[in-house]
Amino acid sequence: MPPFTPCFGFSLPLLITCFLTCPWIELVTASAAPLYNHRSCEAAVQEWSNKEKLALNKELKLVQPGSRKILELLFFLHIPRTGGRTYHQCFLKNLYSPNDRCPRSYDKLRLDLRQPSCKLLSSHDDMSILSKIPSRASVVTNLRNPVNRVLSTYEFSVEVAARFLRLKSINSSRSPLPLAKSPSQLVSTLTIWPWKYLVPFMQHDIFTRRDARLEGKVNWPQSTNTTYDAPTITMPLTEFIHHPVAHELVHNGATFQVAGLTNNSCNEDAVMVRKCSSLYPKLGHQVLDVAKRRLDYMLFVGLTEKHQESATIFFSLVADQAQVQSKAMQEILGQNASVPVQEKDPRLLLFAAYKSCLASLRSSHAIRRAATLQLISPVRFSQEERKRIPSAVLEEIVSLNNLDMELHEHAKKLFAKQQRHFTTSTDPQVKQDQTVLSMFLILSISMILLILGLLVALRVRKRVGNDWLPFWLRRLLLLQVHEKL
Ligand SMILES: *[C@@H]1O[C@H](CO)[C@@H](O)[C@H](O)[C@H]1NC(C)=O
Ligand SMILES: *[C@@H]1O[C@H](CO)[C@@H](O)[C@H](O)[C@H]1NC(C)=O
Ligand SMILES: *[C@@H]1O[C@H](CO)[C@@H](O)[C@H](O)[C@H]1NC(C)=O
Ligand SMILES: *[C@@H]1O[C@H](CO)[C@@H](O)[C@H](O)[C@H]1NC(C)=O
Known about the structure:
It is found in: Membrane. It contains 19 helices and 4 strands. By secondary structure, it is mostly helical.
């Protein structure tokens, strides 16, 4: 079996590129200071942004303006913690047969290009992945309020890390994590960016705190706001948001992912451009501009806050075009008794299947979370607990995510526009009824006009015999004939 191909495969040209750039990359990471001065940063960001705009213009030439058509590949750019996993699990998967889905799009860190003709890619990869794919792609994504996204990232990291407390094989912060070969969910999260980094980081932190607690080494002060500030058990929220790992993987993550500049990017310039844009606010805004333009030209941009409305629009966009797989449909019908079988419209069926799948995913997540949080009691994540986070901390998150805040505002405007475009078609049944009604109206009006026209012609003809054309009209026609001669 051939190994999966990461963005940077071991081909000769790439080896040469690496030969030329690797010493430079090492220089950047080793003694970075002089390379990130304002002048070189300005030049690097400018060069990157020019390249991006050029690429975007080239892509756009191939697309009809305002087109809602899905191109060869549908790329679901899944920004972590925006609720996109349910779109993939409960909806997109039903639209494409396994052969048409890009292999391992979620299970490996990077895209497997063994099947270059695949039609559906859902992953945490950033925009730069498209430069590695020959097919022309339509991109859809989901954005979320950055504060909620950061809180959710923190909670999920702690939750997944805490699951290791149950494993007997790990009894201290020095124990190695289990190998990522096992098919269990616990381990598969460890192969997906950014959890690949965030979970082991949190796991190590939780076990270090537990070691210290067990050995009675430290005496942390007791805090009243125990969930987001429980230093005896987990890294407090305030510590997390200021940690270099959060700067690298979490803050402004949506902007970087849409711009193709994450820590997981295929673009060799990403490290420098990302760092520069964090150092100099003006350069950050240059990156934001590119990200906004990228959003503008996506097939669809949803909002996690408006999950129901987003799903509806997304469905009417995609379900009409992607061939609904009969096999997938059979599965839906076979498995889910809650889906009303009498529904003949595949879109209604898909929507019903989506809702039941969503409900069951949500309830199993909730059960799992509750079981895990018992291991780190009194930490308990909930909407109620979130309300107790001091507003100063929330403001800090806002300022650490200033680019994402603006991108989210931009996405809201785009969403409102899309919503206006789709208002009449929220319910496929309504849409169908409306189409039938308007076709009936057009048909009856044209029939009436036709009958009226015939009646008038007959009457005129009766009155004036064969010379029923008005004199001036005959004159005009004759004149034209003369002119032509
Ligand atoms: C942790 O487990 C290892 C073997 O898995 C064992 O050798 C070690 O003694 C254990 N440590 C503690 C503190 O229980
Ligand atoms: C916890 O409460 C203290 C005082 O009430 C406050 O200073 C601190 O910022 C809080 N921390 C968090 C993470 O909520
Ligand atoms: C991505 O971030 C993680 C965590 O900070 C780091 O270990 C890793 O080396 C980074 N990868 C790249 C390509 O920068
Ligand atoms: C059908 O329902 C089950 C649970 O009842 C759920 O796990 C599954 O994902 C659903 N399948 C589809 C295709 O919606």
